[in-house]
Amino acid sequence: MFTMTRTATAAAFSPALAGAGLRETYLDLPGHGDSPADCPPTSLAVLDTVCEWLDHHIDAPVLLAGGSYGAYLATGIARRRPELVRGLLLVCPGVTIARDSRDLPDEPPLEAPTGWLDAAPAALHAHLDAALGHRTSTVVATVLAALNSGGPGDTTFQERLQTGPDYALPDENADVVFDGPVTVITGRQDRIVGYADQFRAMRRYPRGTFTVIDAAGHYLPYEQPALLRSLTQDWLRRTPGIPAA
């Protein structure tokens, strides 16, 4: 996810992939975690950096898993470099980057216990209130631990990337078909990227499974880990040569 690190990504996905016998590799994007901001602050430059890493470190197509902005980049890789990608696991994926273009749920958020956000910094209250569907102090603590894990990142680079004119990939709206196994998992109460745009994008994935989970928001891996594991194991079962646990 945007601003988050490989440590947070591992905490999100490793439990879901456990027992599959895969070699898991987690990357800090440029300007995130411990990776230097050594590319221009554009999504295309970030994507090209990831592809360059893949070109230098793999000799066969890989399974790509990502959440939010990471999933947005994963779909971009599948469009531009399909020979690198064996399958896609997309959790709360960004589909359209411009905030005012996203189709977000308009229902009120689910009820939450009094004081459920007390442990979070005040500056994060509005974000977590919009992002979380499973609204408990335990989930908040888990998300805060993920947000605070890993290297420091380069906040100036992240801000320039997110607010710059080239935050969107140039082929964001291209209906390029990817034929590999795809699983798209969304949160019913995700008021950051929503779930409707993701469903409409399924026409690009003829071997795609789409799931929207109730009582889940944008931090779905930390909100509903058991459901994430179940759906991930189904994705692996649909991938030839991968023995799911």
TrEMBL record:
Report the source organism.
Micromonospora arida
Read off the Gene3D superfamilies from this record: alpha/beta hydrolase (3.40.50.1820)
Sorted UniProt keywords? Hydrolase
Q: Can you name this protein?
A: Alpha/beta hydrolase
Say yes or no: keyword Transmembrane helix present.
Answer: no
Q: Name one GO molecular function term.
A: hydrolase activity
User: In what residue span(s) does the AB hydrolase-1 domain sit?
Assistant: 16-228
- Any Pfam family matching the protein: Abhydrolase_6
In terms of InterPro entries, this protein maps to:
AB_hydrolase_1, AB_hydrolase_fold, AB_hydrolase_sf, Epox_hydrolase-like
Presence of the UniProt keyword Endoplasmic reticulum in the record: no
